[in-house]
Design goal:
mainly alpha; 8 helices
């Protein structure tokens, strides 16, 4: 059976990640601000399916593939770090845009909103590292069925991530209005977000953790 310490560990890791600005947050907030909360919720539905894809693939052996072919995992890690580094550069460069700064975006259909949410999550390096490297560390073979533990702990991560992102996108409009009248705070938020993305990119690029096969 899954231990309480494992659940608590995944909960804390998931909470830290959902509060760290990244591709999912940037996409959900931008859609919520420019197209309304309904668009943000639909996009979040796509993100949720992306989580389920990672959860299922990892528990059915994707981590084992990366264990056997570490070059693939290295390529994924470097690509993810490069993507986060690019996001950090775009945020910190002169004229960069903050997460909560309203930007002009053409309205999209519900189908496209869902699909973009799904693809944003599937290409999110934070989530790839979470499922391939971090969550397996909390799975203990002596605690019972390994596959069941993987799905339960993944379910904890999904619950935390969806709840946190839902609260953020519902409050995005209010937060954006607050920053709109306080450009100094908006600049601070942009530099803080860019710095966090940069640090995360460096951490992922230099991390020597290997995926653990269940």
């Amino acid at each position: 059976m899954v231990t309480y310490s494992a659940v608590a560990g995944v909960f804390l890791v998931s909470l830290a990640l959902v509060m760290t600005p990244g591709p999912n947050m940037m996409y959900l907030v931008s859609r919520s601000i420019t197209q309304g909360r309904r668009a943000g919720v639909i996009s979040l539905g796509g993100v949720a399916v992306g989580f389920l894809v990672y959860l299922t693939a990892t528990n059915l052996g994707l981590s084992a593939i990366f264990t056997e072919v570490p070059e693939l995992y290295l390529a994924l890690r470097i690509a993810g770090a490069g993507y986060l580094g690019w996001l950090a550069f775009k945020t910190l460069r002169p004229g960069g845009v903050a997460v909560f700064a309203p930007t002009e975006m053409p309205p999209d259909s519900s189908r496209r909103l869902f699909t973009m949410g799904l693809m944003t999550n599937l290409l999110n390096p934070k989530i790839a590292v979470l499922y391939l490297s971090l969550i397996p560390q909390f799975v203990h073979p002596d605690a019972g069925h390994v596959l069941l533990q993987g799905f339960v702990l993944g379910g904890v991560q999904i619950l935390v991530a969806l709840t946190g992102n839902l609260l953020i996108l519902l409050a995005a409009g209010t937060i954006a209005a607050f920053f709109a009248h306080r450009p100094g705070w908006l600049r601070i938020q942009r530099y803080l977000m860019g710095s966090v993305l940069g640090v995360l990119a460096i951490k992922i690029a230099t991390d020597q953790t290997r995926p653990v096969s269940g």
